[in-house]
């Protein structure tokens, strides 16, 4: 079974090797037929402390690192997000 990959924005990088990523999903309300936005925060493992607040990153489902961390930062995505900011 393939691992899920989500895209979101880093809202916190205060923890050691941990980032908090806000993932937003949009769907049509079944009764109102209006587009609704729902967001959820995920704790993700960031081995090299590469991601910073405001960056758009991809996180991947993985084994549990702790009670709340069951996602990890996809390698290479944080580096690509930093490159345009430096230029």
UniProtKB/TrEMBL annotation:
Statement: the UniProt record of this protein carries the keyword Ribosomal protein: yes
TM segment ranges: none
Gene Ontology terms: cellular component: ribosome
Known role: One of the primary rRNA binding proteins, it binds specifically to the 5'-end of 16S ribosomal RNA.
Subunit note: Part of the 30S ribosomal subunit.
Record PANTHER family: 40S RIBOSOMAL PROTEIN S11 FAMILY MEMBER, SMALL RIBOSOMAL SUBUNIT PROTEIN US17M
Protein family (similarity comment): Belongs to the universal ribosomal protein uS17 family.
HAMAP family in UniProt: Ribosomal_uS17_B (MF_01345_B)
Protein name: Small ribosomal subunit protein uS17
Gene for this chain: rpsQ
């Amino acid at each position: 079974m393939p691992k899920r990959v989500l895209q979101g924005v880093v809202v916190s990088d205060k923890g050691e090797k941990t980032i908090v990523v806000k993932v937003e999903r949009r769907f049509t309300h079944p009764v109102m037929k209006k587009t609704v936005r729902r967001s959820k925060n995920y704790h993700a493992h960031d081995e090299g402390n590469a991601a910073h607040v405001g960056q758009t990153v991809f996180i991947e489902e993985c084994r549990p690192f702790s009670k709340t961390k069951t996602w990890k930062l996809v390698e290479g995505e944080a580096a690509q997000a930093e490159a345009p900011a430096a230029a």
